[in-house]
């Protein structure tokens, strides 16, 4: 089964490079490239069966945040990976709440890009290690050193975690994917998937991004 992908970025060279890397995979196909968020929304509006959108956060005409919001309306099944840099201000924060399924740094290595697409295509979420650190720093900065109020159900969930689940939680918060966590803990990837599913249920998080945000509030 081919994963159909739309790319959106206002830098032609980056678009070309991304398309070359992605189209080299037999099961991936870039079906459209867009230079701004409005084009991306129009593309998804005309074909809401697109699987994945990889989109820059900052673009002319319509930025990635607004485009993400509209894409969620016209193509709710499409999963969106945001491309970002370290200097993104509150863009990442806004994208989290808008429903982004993943974040990648623009200078990510090709194999990291491909892993991220495969992870998101499986229904999971992904944060590159660099973005994870930025997200945690951002939340701590916004909290001004104060301990945030964690919802009661999440507090209860934290108390129910097994020692292994706590280990997995910490590694997810560092931006590691299932394969990397499995290698670090010397267990199977299937076992890690089971632990992550348990974490999401116990901690009342929608996805891995929610786990990272919760970790940043602790």
From TrEMBL:
GO terms for molecular function: DNA binding. InterPro entries: CheY-like_superfamily, NreC/VraR/RcsB-like_REC, Sig_transdc_resp-reg_C-effctor, Sig_transdc_resp-reg_receiver, Tscrpt_reg_LuxR_C, WalR-like. Residues 4-121 form the Response regulatory domain. Keywords: DNA-binding, Phosphoprotein, Transcription, Transcription regulation. Signal peptide: none annotated. SUPFAM superfamilies: C-terminal effector domain of the bipartite response regulators (SSF46894), CheY-like (SSF52172). The modification 4-aspartylphosphate is found at residue 56. Residues 154-218 form the HTH luxR-type domain. PANTHER family: TRANSCRIPTIONAL REGULATORY PROTEIN NARL-RELATED (PTHR43214:SF24), TWO-COMPONENT RESPONSE REGULATOR (PTHR43214). This is DNA-binding response regulator. It comes from Corynebacterium ulcerans.
């Amino acid at each position: 089964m081919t994963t159909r992908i739309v790319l959106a970025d206002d830098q032609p060279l980056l678009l070309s490079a991304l398309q070359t890397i992605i189209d080299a995979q037999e099961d991936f196909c870039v079906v459209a490239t867009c230079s701004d968020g409005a084009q991306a929304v129009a593309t998804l509006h005309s074909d809401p069966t697109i699987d994945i959108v990889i989109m820059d956060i900052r673009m002319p005409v319509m930025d990635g945040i607004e485009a993400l919001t509209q894409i969620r309306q016209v193509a709710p099944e499409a999963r969106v990976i945001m491309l970002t840099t370290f200097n993104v201000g509150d863009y990442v924060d806004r994208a989290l709440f808008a429903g982004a399924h993943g974040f990648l740094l623009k200078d990510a290595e090709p194999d990291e890009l491909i892993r991220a697409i495969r992870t998101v295509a499986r229904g999971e979420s992904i944060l590159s290690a660099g973005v994870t650190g930025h997200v945690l720093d951002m939340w701590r900065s916004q909290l001004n050193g104060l301990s945030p109020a964690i919802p009661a159900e999440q507090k209860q969930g934290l108390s129910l975690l097994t020692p292994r689940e706590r280990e997995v939680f910490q590694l997810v918060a560092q931006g590691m994917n299932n394969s990397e966590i499995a290698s670090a803990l010397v267990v199977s990837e299937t076992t890690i998937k089971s632990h992550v599913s348990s974490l999401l249920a116990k901690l009342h998080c929608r996805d891995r991004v929610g786990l990272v945000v919760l970790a940043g509030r602790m």
